[in-house]
Amino acid sequence: MIEATDLRKLYRIADREVLALDGVDLRVAPGEVYGVVGQSGAGKSTLLRCVNLLERPTSGSVRVHGRELTAMSESELRGARRDIGMVHQHFALLSSRTVAGNVAFPLEIMGVRGAQRRRRVGELLELVGLQDKARAYPAQLSGGQKQRVGIARALAARPAVLLSDEATSALDPETTGSILELLRDLNRELGLTILLITHEMDVIKQICDSAAIMEDGRFLEQGPILDLLARPGSLLARSLFPLPALEDPDTVVLTHTRQPETAVLSELTRHFDVDVHMYGGAVDTIAGSTVGRLQLRITGAARAAALDHLREQGMGVEVGA
């Protein structure tokens, strides 16, 4: 659905050059919720703006819904962008228009008239739970309601792809949860492909199927979230499940991304000549699955065989240095 290949974006500011994107490759599958997480200045917003060609990359290509946007003229892009909705961090609503008027605005630009436009606005407001706010103005809305209006407006043209630019960063935690739940519901009900950027790991944890960690214009790691969590040395796993550093060579961190069928640790001590000491751990629901991380100290003559057994059971195994 979204394919970006070797994207580079170079800005020239006064007498210096700033490389905002440095060879980024991105693949977002149809119907997927994909999150890009990183701190300010990592290049996230530049990446998002290059995906819909609001910024032209210095080099590289972008394909969305089978069409190569980087090969299009500006007039061709205007039509192609109807397939790409955009939700903004600070809502970007027109203060002089009602809720219904804001949602109707892109339909007006498209030339949708009269009853058809009103019917579509009603459908969208029902979709985001704001049927009773049609005549309200943005100043009369809460932050979460404003973002719901922004989402409805972004869906007006029935896009296949929705881009979210820090859509929850201006909201309180409870409202953030409701907006993320709405985005996930839209993803499932409409088959909507969503690419979002955020600096919050909780956003990645709550709704994303795949993710990338970005720093200095590059992806440090990327892929399906459950695969990343099971990967030894995963930055995502360490961010979501912070544990002390593995300084003791006998220390092991186990990650399971599905519920084990057996009592793994009891089985380990019964069948192998090892001692197991537990230091700590946590269990959470991520990408719709129960994920656990345990930090252990495993010693004994059969330690290597025990670790191999854990890997065979589908556990991610990370050993101390």
From TrEMBL:
Pfam family, one: ABC_tran
Domain ABC transporter stretches: 2-241
Keyword Cell cycle: no
Keyword list, A-Z: Amino-acid transport, ATP-binding, Cell membrane, Membrane, Nucleotide-binding, Translocase, Transport
InterPro entries: AAA+_ATPase, ABC_transporter-like_ATP-bd, ABC_transporter-like_CS, ACT-like_dom_sf, MetN_ABC, MetN_ABC_transporter-like, NIL_domain, P-loop_NTPase
SUPFAM superfamilies: ACT-like, P-loop containing nucleoside triphosphate hydrolases
Gene3D superfamilies for this protein: 3.30.70.260, P-loop containing nucleotide triphosphate hydrolases
Cited CDD domains: ABC_MetN_methionine_transporter (cd03258)
Protein name, entry field: ATP-binding cassette domain-containing protein
GO molecular function, one term: ATP binding
